Every structure is written in C-alpha cells, then in structure tokens.
Amino acid sequence: MKNLMLQLSRLLTASILVMSTATMAWADDDILSQAELDQMLAPVALYPDTVLTHVLIAATYPLEVVQASRWAKANSNLTGDDAVKAVESKSWDPSVKALVAFPQLLERLSSDLDWTEQLGEAFLADETQVLASIQTLRQKAYANGSLNDNKHVVVEREREVIIIEPARKEVIYVPVYDTRVVYGDWWWPSYPPVYWQTAGVQFGRSPFYWGVSVNVRPWFYFGIFDWRQHHVVVNHHYYHTPPRYYPRRHTHFVNAHRWTHNTEHRRGVQYRHARLNRDYNSGYGYSQSTRETKGIPARSTRVDSNVTVRENKQQYQRRTAEQVRLPNRELRANDNTPRQRNEALRQQLNTPQRERQAITEQRRAPINSTEQLRQREQARPLPRIEPNQVKPEQRQQSQHVQVQQRQAQPAQNVQVQQRQPRAERQPQVSAPREQRAATTTRNNMAQNQERRARQID
C-alpha cells in the first residue's frame, strides 16, 4: 500500500511539472529555445566581429534591408566604399548603409527575409543570449579545428571569448562556409543548422570560401561587441566624423554607448513577438494606415459548394494609437457651440471694463480749467448706496433738508395746487424711506461739487 501511494505521488508530481512546463512554454511561445538560436546563427556566427554587429543591427530593420538590396541591384557598378558614399543621403540606419559594400550578403538577407526578421527579433528580445550562442558556435568550430588564423582573418582567444578580426583593417572578407562541416557533429539532431547554398561556390579541403575582398574606411568600425557585458557598443563618432587612422580595439569603448533600437527605422513593420510589440510599439501591430481608415472596402471571398462569390464587405481591423486620435473640430461662423457662447459672454463682460479703463485714463489727464473739472465730476458715476448702509444720522439730516426745501418753494405753486379740482388731483404716493435717503445723499453730493467749483473760481 505504501509503495502504491508513493508511486501515485510521484506520478502526480510529474504531471504537475509537465503542466507547468507546458504553461510556461505557451506563455513564452515567442521566445526561441537554445536549439533554435544555434540553428539560426550557424551561417553568420563566424563572421568578423564588425561585420556581424552590422548584420545583427540591420536585421532589426528588415524593410530598410530590402530597400538597400534593391538599390545595390540597380547600382551594381558601384562597389565597396564608393557604394557606401553614394547612399550617405539615404535615411537608412548606418549599419544598413555599411552593408551596401557587401551586395552578396545584402542580397542573402533580403531573399531570406523570414530568417532576417527572426534574427533581428531574437537579438531585440534577448541580446545576451544571442551573444552567448555566437560564442558557443565559435567554441565548437575552434574545437573542431575549423577556425584558425589565416591570411584573411585573425582569431584571438581571450579566456572564454573568441574574437575574429580582419587580418588587415582596410580589407574585409566575408566568408561563406558549410555549416554542416565546420562545426563538426551537430549537437541538436532535431534542429539542423541553416545552410546557405551559394551559386558558383565549391568547397575543397577547407569548409570556408572567402570570396572577393572589400576595401573599407575607418568609419566602418563604429560597431563592436562588448563581450564582457554581453551587448553591442556603437560609437557614432567614428561614423559621422570619420577618424584618419583605423582605431584600435580598446579605443572603441571611449565615448561609446550601448546600442539602442530606433523604431523609426522599423518603418512600421510589425513585430512578431508580443513582448516586442508591448515594448516598442505600445502594444499595437501595424502603425500604417489600414483599409478601414482609407475608406476602401476590403474584398472577401465566400466559397460555396458549387460557386465562388466575391463580396465587398467592410472588414474591421484593430486601430493603432495614431488612428484613434480624433481630428480637431473646425468651428464655423454659424456654429452655436459652447466655445463660441463663452467667447461672446467674455466680450460682454469685458465691455464695462473697457469703459472703466477709458474713464480712468480721462481722470489721469491734467486739469487746466474749471470747465474740465465740472465735466469730469459730471461724468463720474454716482456710488450706489444700499439701504442698509445709510446711517440714522444721515436719515435725520436728509429729512431736515427736505423740510427746508418745502418751505423755500414759492407761494404761487402752493396756490395753484389748491385751485386744482379734486378729480384732477393725482394721489401722491409717498416714496419709501430708503429711496428718499438715497435721493438726499445725491443732492448733498451735488451741492458739494458746486462748492468745490466755486472755490476753484
């Protein structure tokens, strides 16, 4: 019984491990395994370091690689440094421009575009793992006796790192080799190495074919591997302002920075890896305009058992962040929008303010005569007095002034009022106390103004 329970527990543990491994593999289905990396990097791992840095960087911009390959075909009369000078005005990445000096290599990258995109995205996804795989392949070739110094390249071994450099800095050879022989017995039987069959190339005793030499300038060496930190270092100072002499290896790291991916050179090409879309494309796919945004109906084909019908149906595609942005609304003259209403109300509120500013400027003007003073006093608005602001003493004073005014009226006006018949007499409605107080205050202010004018005279 105990043995049975032990076996069941082991089976349960194994099943859980298998399920977790499958789940992790499903979650990271866009990450290549070590066997797939070795398979993919086999045809380029033995390139000189500088050429290999340009290949890895250019692979992240597949559309520019295709454009450069087409340009090289159309301008086959230009080779080497002359071809590179002719594309200086192009908006391509510097590594893509550098590969124009090698039209055969550029043609290989353009023709096998699936491999190029896979290499570029693997380099973006895990740069450290890609460089480690390159060193593994070089160690295998070195142990097999295929990778040695010759008149074309110099192989330097620094501890566990193998560095491949041209024998002469001004001349570069890009080898073509048989991946099925150079590495010895392949260690991944289910993933054989990628083999590029090149027309006119025959391998003799050596698995390498070196081809035609290419003359380069010192600026060609602006990229290099930092094997200790496991990343690519780019010094654009050598590219934009080329040095006079070919730099040594240790000078590459002076004023150099780690290479970073520039999405502008991607030219809207979608990333196959979901994580790269999240990191470099904000989670979206193509950033180019789709049929939906252009207003072009997409054709769909409906296949029946006997007949094939082509229909024009609108196929909706996922929009990018740039496509979701709505254009600004153009305001028309007769459009009664809230913005226009707010603007009209703002102008109405600003009108009294402008008038007050004009009165203030008029008051600040110098006074040369009594007439100007009277005009200014008349133009000055009377202050509005609220009923609650009138004091009891002011009320009594205003009532005393009203009594004096009534006594000062001529007697004829009183007699005329007495002779009027009762029917024609209008009832006198007594004004409220607040209104009378305000009237009395205005009269007092008018009398004070007249006194000031007399004093000035």
Quickly describe the structure.
The chain has 457 residues and is mainly alpha-helical. The chain is built from 19 helices and 11 strands.
Total separate domains: 3
Radius of gyration: 46 Å
How much helix, percentage-wise, in residues? 40-55%
Global morphology: elongated
Question: Mean pLDDT across all residues, rounded?
Answer: 75
Category from helices, strands and their pairing: mainly alpha
- Let me know the largest β-sheet: 3 strands, antiparallel
Distance between the termini: 131 Å
Number of helices: 19
Strand order of the largest sheet: 7-8-9
Low-confidence stretches: 22-29, 286-304, 308-317, 324-333, 411-418
Q: Let me know the number of strands.
A: 11
What's the structural blueprint in terms of helices and strands?
Elements: H1 2-27, H2 34-41, H3 49-59, H4 62-74, H5 80-86, H6 94-98, H7 103-111, H8 113-125, H9 127-143, E1 153-158, E2 161-166, E3 171-172, E4 176-177, H10 179-182, E5 208-209, E6 214-215, E7 223-226, E8 231-234, H11 237-240, E9 257-258, H12 274-280, H13 291-294, E10 299-303, E11 308-312, H14 321-324, H15 338-364, H16 370-379, H17 392-407, H18 411-419, H19 433-456
Structure description:
The chain is mostly helical. It has 3 domains: 32-280, no CATH class; 289-323, no CATH class; 357-381 and 447-457, no CATH class. 48% of the residues lie in helices and 9% in strands. It is built from 19 helices and 11 strands. The longest helix has 27 residues, at 338-364.
